[in-house]
Amino acid sequence: MDFYVVKAGDTVNSIASFLGVSPQRIIYDNQLIYPYELAVGQALLIDRGQPRAADTTTISVSGYAYTFISPWVLRQTLPFLSELPIFSYGFTYDGQLNPPLWDDTWMIAMAREYSVQPILTLTPFGADGNFNNQLINSVVNNQKYIDNLIQNLLNLMGQKGYVGVDIDFEFILARDRDAFTDFVRQIAEAMGANGYHTSVALAPKVSAEQRGLLYEGKDYRALGEVADHLLLMTYEWGYTYGPPMAVAPIDQVRRVVEYAITEIPREKLDLGIPNYAYDWPLPYERSVTMARTIGNVEAVRLAVEQGAEIFFDEIGQTPYFRYRSTDGVDHEVWFEDVRSLQAKFDLIKEYQLRGCGYWQIMQWFRANWLLLSQNFYVRK
Questions:
Q1: Catalytic residues
Q2: Which of 29, 132, 231, 240 has the most CB atoms around its CB within 10 Å?
Q3: 63 and 8 in one domain?
Q4: Domain count, the chain
């Protein structure tokens, strides 16, 4: 597949004629909406019908999904996945499990229909819906609570049909680092003894000494020794309350990967990929400005509606644009397109990683999945 960057005066028909491809294919693959207007600078995926390369590798692909995902979106996405981490199960201070707000049974059944492994995602959410490190502290430092949680996990997984558990703990206290590692070790051993596997989501560190609440509680090397595989959460450089910037700039993503492979076997590592964009009102004011989360397809449609030109940051390998809304407020939008995704796929190939994991698959982004399937075979 090729990319075509839209120039002033281009139309779908003129591009199709120039490239010798079907306009209907361009419209379908790129989710264009009638009357099929384009934004200058927009990158289109162009399917020339070429077969995969003979040396195409096979990778594992996962995508987190909430239990309120559209059944249509899930069914469209599952053919491209190896694993479906369902978000999420919480737990109490003494190790009792809290189920998701909506039923997960239908998602497990649909995953199995497509030979995709359903994964139970375990998160330490407090009553406010945020990560709670006191909840983590209570469980990982009490053997009785750990045993209780493990038994509850095993019982639930057997009842529901999950085949693995993904431990997504964030903001772990530095003093709980070793206790957390031992907690993961105990879960992994119990899961392995019962035919299940264990994965861990890792904050994107660039050194063992990196300071900060996101990083100090996770020991890359030790966790890499006890978990079956691990996801590098290589996104959120640009985030809801931060200044406008790329969500997953490739130069920063590369730094994380280069450090991670010095601590963890590369065949255990999955690269995190964002399936979302942020729209910031300007000017940015710290602790005041809040970005709006939108989808990558939605971002391009917004650029078309606003008559905005899309630019491409060559260092971060990420597209962005600016526009002024009807209320006179300036905005800056950073998102992912086929160019930024290809840069991430190339990184997976370069470092021979296990695969990739998407946060999250709630919105359908057809060009992403077509591009992924051209780059890799998906392990089933």
A1: 170
A2: 231
A3: no
A4: 2
